[in-house]
Each structure stands twice: as structure tokens, then as C-alpha cells.
Design brief:
- The chain has 179 residues and is mainly α.
- The chain has one domain.
- It has five helices and no strands.
- The chain has helices at residues 2-21, 36-53, 59-89, 109-134, 139-175.
- The chain is flat.
- The N and C termini lie far apart (62 Å).
Length: 179
């Protein structure tokens, strides 16, 4: 339940942060108030940190390793996510081609630095607070969230994929010349 609750807390937190600061009230493609990439990223950060903590190194080396590994891995996930959204749903939710140090359309050096710094913020400041909160979440709440999330994914695949196909068909029809 620990990791599932982390997933939901940061999927919801990420949704509100992104909606407020970046995307004019909308975040992600799901209908619910969660953006799963933030939850997935959080779980990855937790696992990376867990493995780095097993190393027999001083704290500074561990912080540098956490920063670098999270910057690279989360940027890779962001890039793959961007290409998958374009391929599956024919939508582009972000594009960093205008960033000075872009790496393709869906990630950049600037974003890699943000992911690295966010990882440090999560592990060294937020995790101790969230760990206390997670212990108080009843299992039934987690189960309800899992069910709602699965329903949301099914609805998204059903409605948004068919909407994307109908838009593509409409676009093809409108571009066809009548002879």
C-alpha cells in the first residue's frame, strides 16, 4: 500500500501543480484529477534512492548520484511519454523544441535539471512528511482510488482514442479533393 499511496498522492499533487502553473487548468489525458506520470516518477525516485542508500558512500556522493540518475531517468521517461501520447492519441501535451538545450521535442536539459532538483526536494524534504501521512490512510481509501483509476483509464482509452480516430478521419475527409 505504501507505494500505491505514494503514486496517488503525487499523481494528484502533480495534476494540481501542473494545472495551476503550466497548462491553464488541465493536466494529462485522464478524466480524473491525477496525472499518473508524476506518481510513476515518484515511485522511480523512491526506488533509485533506496538503491543509492545501499551504497557505502558519503552523503554528498549519494546526493549527486540521486540528482544525476533521476535527471537522466525521468527525462527519458518524459521523452518516451511524449512520443507515446503523440503515437497513441495523436496529441502533444508538451513540447520543448523551443528550449535552448532541447533533446528532441519532449525533453531538454532545463527539464532534466528540474527533475533532478525535484527528486532531491522529494527525498530530503517531502518524504518525511508524506511517510507520516501515508501511515494514516485507510486501506479502503486506497482501494477506492485504485478502482476509480482503473475506470478512468478504461474511459480514457475508450473515449479519447475513438475521439482521436474520429478527428483523424474528419481531417482526412476534409483534406480530400472532390473530383
Amino acid at each position: 500500500m505504501y507505494y500505491i499511496n505514494y503514486f496517488f498522492i503525487f499523481s494528484i499533487f502533480g495534476h494540481f501543480i501542473e494545472s495551476f502553473f503550466y497548462s491553464n487548468g488541465e493536466s494529462g489525458i485522464l478524466f480524473g484529477y491525477w496525472t499518473p506520470i508524476y506518481g510513476i516518477g515518484t515511485i522511480i525516485i523512491l526506488f533509485i534512492n533506496k538503491n543509492i542508500n545501499k551504497l557505502k558512500s558519503n552523503k554528498i556522493i549519494k546526493v549527486i548520484l540521486l540528482f544525476l540518475s533521476c535527471s537522466i531517468i525521468l527525462s527519458l521517461i518524459e521523452s518516451i511519454g511524449g512520443y507515446l501520447l503523440k503515437w497513441i492519441f495523436n496529441i502533444e501535451l508538451w513540447n520543448y523544441s523551443n528550449h535552448k538545450f532541447n533533446i528532441g521535442d519532449y525533453t531538454s536539459l532545463e527539464m532534466a535539471l528540474i527533475w533532478g532538483l525535484s527528486s532531491l526536494l522529494l527525498i530530503y524534504y517531502l518524504k518525511p512528511i508524506v511517510d507520516k501521512i501515508i501511515k494514516k490512510i485507510p486501506k479502503i481509501i486506497t482501494l477506492i482510488l485504485v478502482i476509480l483509476f482503473i475506470v478512468d483509464i478504461a474511459a480514457t482509452i475508450t473515449f479519447k482514442k475513438s475521439f482521436s480516430i474520429s478527428l483523424s478521419t474528419t481531417s482526412q475527409i476534409s483534406n480530400t479533393k472532390i473530383k
